[in-house]
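We were asked to recover a plausible sequence for a given structure. The inputs and outputs are reproduced exactly as logged, with field labels preserved.

PROBLEM: sequence recovery
POSITIONS: 130
GIVEN STRUCTURE:
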């Protein structure tokens, strides 16, 4: 059985930052101990977070869990997320297959040959009902 991996992510207009974390850090963040973020995020992203959070506290919004199967190299990543669920009890009734690349290319022929209908889906927006 694969090891359980955790990460938190944050994004701005230009980039998405995903940082692997250990179980104790995940528990601290979910408990509202945002001081743990000080050592997790790059300085520019942390500065932006603090700028946005001046008027209100930073709190966990959603915890999305899944079983992830992934293959990647230095340019491409293919992931399959199954059993997608939230800490509030929501479950996604289907799996999510995603292809990402750092170069502007179409998906590999083997993936295109599946004739899947592409959709835009944000597990975070789904989890928070936004």
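RECOVERED SEQUENCE:
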């Amino acid at each position: 059985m694969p090891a359980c991996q955790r990460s938190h992510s944050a994004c701005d207009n230009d980039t998405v930052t995903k940082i692997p974390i250990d179980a104790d850090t995940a528990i601290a963040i979910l408990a509202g101990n945002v001081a743990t973020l000080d050592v997790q995020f790059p300085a520019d992203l942390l500065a932006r977070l603090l700028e946005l959070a001046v008027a209100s506290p930073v709190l966990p919004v959603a915890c999305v869990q899944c079983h992830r199967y992934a293959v990647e190299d230095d340019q491409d990543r293919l992931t399959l997320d199954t059993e997608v669920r939230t800490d509030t009890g929501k479950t996604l009734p289907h799996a999510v297959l995603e292809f990402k690349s750092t170069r502007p290319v179409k998906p590999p022929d083997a993936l295109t040959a599946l004739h899947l209908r592409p959709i835009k889906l944000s597990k975070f927006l789904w989890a928070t009902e936004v």
